[in-house]
Design goal:
Pfam families: Cyd_oper_YbgE (PF09600). The protein is mostly helical and about 80 residues long. It has helices spanning about 1-20, 30-50, 55-60, 65-80. It has one domain (about 1-80). The chain is built from 4 helices and no strands. It starts with a helix and ends with a helix.
Length: about 80
Amino acid sequence: MHGPSLLLGVALMLAGSVYPPLMTDAQGRADHGLALLLLWAMCAGLVRGVGFVPRFWLWRALFSGWSSLLALLAFVLLKFLR
């Protein structure tokens, strides 16, 4: 699952850099919850995508490809269903 995770991480990095309003609320203010979820999805995708698998079970769970997808799903639900 390295390739899709790396692709997801790079895509999220580019999306957040090119279009920062992804991480804002309806009034245009920074939404730290959205930013946290988007950056968590990006970091988990990049960590797993380069092939690094942490030894400690908690870090392994937080930086897995599945947690990246879960964080991205939570981001989409909060951003577009609010």
